[in-house]
Design brief:
The protein is of the alpha/beta class. The protein has a single domain, classed as Decaprenyl diphosphate synthase-like (Undecaprenyl pyrophosphate synthetase, 3-Layer(aba) Sandwich). It is built from 7 helices and 6 strands; from the N terminus they run E-H-H-E-H-E-H-E-H-H-E-E-H. Strands 3-4-2-1-5-6 form a 6-stranded parallel beta sheet, sandwiched between helices. Strand 3, helix 4 and strand 4 form a beta-alpha-beta unit. Helix 2 runs parallel beside helix 3 and helix 3 runs parallel beside helix 4. The radius of gyration is 18 Å and the shape is globular. Bound molecules: 3-methylbut-3-enyl trihydrogen diphosphate (2 copies) and magnesium ion (MG). One 3-methylbut-3-enyl trihydrogen diphosphate binds next to strand 2. One 3-methylbut-3-enyl trihydrogen diphosphate (IPE) binds next to strand 2.
């Protein structure tokens, strides 16, 4: 072992899962779990600033989540607005830019307006980024990129021979955001559920049994430590 200090992850992506089961175990409605989950997001964002993680991307609502009961979807949208209202000051305090990945136009108009307002208000910050994945699907993102490539080819802006990995990467939702170094999923499920399919090609994965509403700084730091013990080889050798 060398004594070289291992760099922490620059970009952490989290599948914030387990709110419903956590609430159910407490005989409370699912929304109670989502509310406590929003508190975890606050705590983890703060922990990112403290532990040198520049970019935090969180899976907040998938393209498939539209299929949940209307009450739950409405409740989640309400919570999102509350989060934006309450936490805008945290973003300013930490000079963190808010961004959205996903089909923003699918969201209710009032939620979109609030998101656009906070995104514009924090646009200039360069210390950190909080990326909310909303109405996000990895396949939708790739389909949207494919459509843009087809449009560029049809318009004569792009030659078919020029369609390579970079051409795809440039047409993803946030092309300037580097791929996640670390991907965490809480609550014991071991699957991607359509999150960042392209971007996690070489990410390190951690699946923790801790449900999202209980995932706080200590659990996060344990993940950062686990990451620092990993050896990323990218197909090469050690
Ligand atoms: C994650 O918690 C939050 C969202 C998907 C919006 P869940 O609501 O999926 O909670 P479980 O997985 O049913 O426990
Ligand atoms: C993934 O969790 C989506 C979010 C965390 C927003 P789900 O709970 O929707 O995924 P499945 O249904 O367990 O695959
Ligand atoms: Mg779930």
């Amino acid at each position: 072992m060398s004594d070289e200090k291992v760099a922490g992850p620059r970009h952490v992506a989290i599948i914030m899962d387990g709110n419903g089961r956590w609430a159910k175990a407490r005989h409370r409605p699912r929304l109670f779990g989502h509310r406590e989950g929003a508190e975890s997001l606050r705590v983890i964002l703060e922990a990112c600033r403290k532990h040198g993680v520049e970019i935090l991307t969180v899976y907040a609502f998938s393209t498939e989540n539209w299929g949940r009961p209307k009450d739950e979807v409405d409740g989640l949208m309400r919570l999102l607005k509350e989060f934006l209202k309450k936490d805008e000051k945290e973003l300013h305090k930490h000079e963190t830019r808010l961004r959205v990945t996903g089909r923003l136009g699918d969201l209710p108009a009032d939620v979109q307006a609030e998101l656009r307002r906070v995104m514009a208000a924090t646009e200039k910050y360069t210390k950190g980024q909080l990326v909310l994945a909303l109405s996000y699907g990895g396949r939708a993102e790739l389909a949207d990129a494919a459509r843009r490539i087809a449009e560029d080819v049809a318009a004569g802006r792009l030659a078919p021979e020029a369609v390579d990995e970079q051409a795809i990467a440039e047409r993803l939702y946030l092309p300037d955001v580097p791929d996640p170094d670390l991907m965490i999923r809480t609550s014991g499920e071991v699957r991607l559920s359509n999150f960042l399919l392209w971007e996690v090609s070489y990410s390190e994965f951690i699946f923790t049994p801790v449900p999202w509403p209980e995932f706080r700084e200590e659990a996060f730091v344990a993940c950062l430590e686990e990451y620092s013990r990993r050896s990323r080889r990218y197909g090469g050798h050690e």
